[in-house]
Predict the 3D structure of the following.
Amino acid sequence: MKIKKKYLGFLCIILCLIIVGRTFISVKGIENSDKLVIQLAHNQAAGSEIAETIAKFSEFTKEESDDTINVKIFASGVLGTESSEVEMVQAGILDMAKVSSNTLGQFDDRYAIFSVPYLFQSQEHYYTAMRESSEIKNLFTDTREYGFIAIGYYANGSRNFYLKEDKAVTDPSVLSGLKIRSMASTTSMDTIEKMGGTPVPMASSETYASLQQGVVDGAENTELALTVDGHEDLVKSYTYTEHQFSPDIFIISTKTWDKMTEEQRQCLITALEETNDNFVSVYNDMMAEAIEEAQSKGVHVYRDIDKTAFIEAVQPIHEEFCARGEEYKALYDDIQSYAN
């Protein structure tokens, strides 16, 4: 019997849903019925250093809950893109996801604040504001109407520019005429333009080939992009512009959250705090190792540059964010209050 083409796509979708559903059911089925099973998805490559630090969340939750909560992790984007994971969390199909703040900006544009360049003056400012800001805490819970809330984060590092030529990125004139890979984010693209370059939006997975083929002249990311993504083989310089600190956020479905006891909720929150503390404690060592490896491959590293010209160039982005409304400005001002 032949199946008409117009039904083929529909059948494929149904098949995928059945497979995913059976995966979740099988996970729950092997657990003791007294245990709460939480499914968490993320897109970090399984076995990578960051994936290993996320895996600590499962260990910390087990300890905090006296082994009454079991976190099952689906790594490497096996359940789809970050946007798809958020939608699954919204629907209650998936309990939790670890996604970038840029992705969450698609669902609540206040999250775009973490894309604002030079929002944070230093790593210390970043860590303090993320830990203490009441307005960030409000943002985390205000998305309940969208079917999820944020209950934790990990403080990913700074984004910096790296180029195929050996040149320190010290002011906008250096990036003039250069094509720079950008995230598919309006703020990220605007940042690169204000800092002198020409943004070329693309998925991170496409960056290596684009550098290799000359589609772009450089990119901006954390140090791990050099080693984990292999960009150290294609670029000659890495400059600590530190123009953006963007946290990754742990969200949970309100359907899951509302079914949990207060004790279970606190176990998850505490475990996520421990996960972030663990990540912070190893992060600088991870970055130092990445830079050392990149230098051994011939990448010239430029530190301690004068960022004044860049900071001045991107001020319109700050002003534009604050002009969106009172709640946007309140969030911005509260974060700035934690600067040194």
About this structure: The radius of gyration is 21 Å. The longest strand covers residues 237-245. The chain is about 50% helix and 20% strand. Confidence is low (pLDDT under 50) at residues 1-16, 25-32.
